[in-house]
Amino acid sequence: MTKKIKTINDFNFENQTALIRVDFNVPINKSYEITDDTRIRYSIPTIQKILYEKGKIVLISHFGRPKGISSKIYSLKFLVHYLSKQLKVTVNFHEHCVGETVRKKVNELKNGEILLLENLRFYKEEEEENENFAYELSKLGDIYVNDAFGVSHRFHSSITILPKFFGKKKCIGFLMKKEIQFIDKFSYGKGKRPITILLGGAKISSKIKIIENIINFADYILIGGAMSYPFIKMKGGMIGDSMIEKNQSIENTLKKIFHKNKNNIIHLPKDVIIADSFKNEANTKISPIHSIPNGWMGLDIGPFSIKNFCKIIEKSETILWNGPVGVFEFSNFSYGTRSIAKSVANTTEKGAFSLVGGGDSIASLKMEKCDQKISYLSTGGGAMLDSLKTQTLPGISAVIQ
Asked: What is the mean pLDDT of residues 162-187?
């Protein structure tokens, strides 16, 4: 896939203004200090390459969900000091994204200078694929660069419409290139075998199409969290009050998956930690997953399942993980997810390739202090999952055209 897409290596940026769509939607604390700067750090090489070539840079990003309304809470201004420090260059800021004052500010940029514009989502047009808004943005650069993998599955103006106005002068940055290359190992089964894909989390609807696709080439598919209960129920198991998404299309797809699972590629938990209420202090016991009593719900995978999942991970050469295998935010039900985190990290240290995406999965790795041991932490859980449905992401298609 990467061969068809122009990257920033295909351009010389001297005397050119690069309009870079980045994803600086980073988690912060109450003091506006960044608690995880992965997304920004991964975009730094793209920015540095353009600076080195004496190009000019205009950065555009969203932050949070301000729903088309300007507010200090969602301003990107807090990033100026951090970016200036990281890049060792003064980063200028403008409180708008479009309009005459912005164009004037961009025209004043000298080679090697950076201008960060205000939150794109202060304009409702950003989330509406608005041609006029995209056209106004296009006046701010000579070359369009998409380095915002985390939102490249969204049909937003700066992702899908803006590139149209740049003809052949559009490309992806280094962060995007890496994400595409690594996901290709899974999307097309190119990775070294055995290939193991571990999917957890609450919603099966967002991942069921992925399972239908990856079952054609994965060696092992491990399913944990609330995603496992529709499978158990379909097989005639009793799941008590466990969380389950009810949806006819899910049931139909599950039937197709069961039909395809002739080689027993899919592995479900055998035992779970069940609780009598949805809270950390609930009464708990271990139960077989197919016979959970009424009034009880499964909130984590059990000791046998942890052992089984870890055994499979440890014999894998290529591992993708997205989503916790229990209610990770409750400390009493986080053991399964933390055990998986350690197992993926240890297997990576022994030479396997690992790709991990999704906030909770990455948080559990950090909790166990093993996030540095993973081959690559994806900057977009949702975009990573959409890539596994064998679609070319909208943001990538827009750059290829």
From this structure: 93
Determine what percent of the chain falls in helix, strand and coil, rounding each to the nearest 5.
45, 15, 40
pLDDT level of residue 248 (50, 70, 90 thresholds): confident
Q: How far is it, in rounded angstroms, from Cα 389 to Cα 208?
A: 9
Cα–Cα dist 320/300, whole Å: 20
Q: Which of 21, 39, 121, 154 is catalytic?
A: 39
Mean pLDDT of 78-82: 96
Determine which one of 64, 112, 189, 382 is catalytic.
Answer: 382
Distance CA 225, CA 269 (A): 9
Instruction: Respond yes or no: is residue 323 known to be catalytic.
Output: no
Contact 24, 79 (CB under 8 A): yes
Residues of the chain with CATH 3.40.50.1260: 2-172, 180-387
Local confidence band at 92 (pLDDT 50, 70, 90 cut-offs): very high
Secondary structure of 78-126 in HEC code, one letter for each residue: HHHHHHHHHHCCCEEEECCCCCHHHHHHHHCCCCCCEEEECCHHHCHHH
Please choose, from the candidates 208, 192, 144, the residue with its C-alpha nearest in 3D space to the C-alpha of residue 398.
Answer: 144
Cβ contacts of 262 within 8 Å, gap of 6 or more: none
Q: Is 245 exposed, middle or buried (0-12, 13-18, 19+ CB in 10 A)?
A: middle
Catalytic-labelled residue, pool 65, 285, 359, 369:
359
pLDDT in tens, 365-377: 988 999 999 999 9
CATH class of 2-172: alpha beta
Give the chain's end-to-end CA distance (angstroms, integer). 13
Instruction: Domain 180-387: give its CATH architecture.
Output: 3-Layer(aba) Sandwich (3.40)
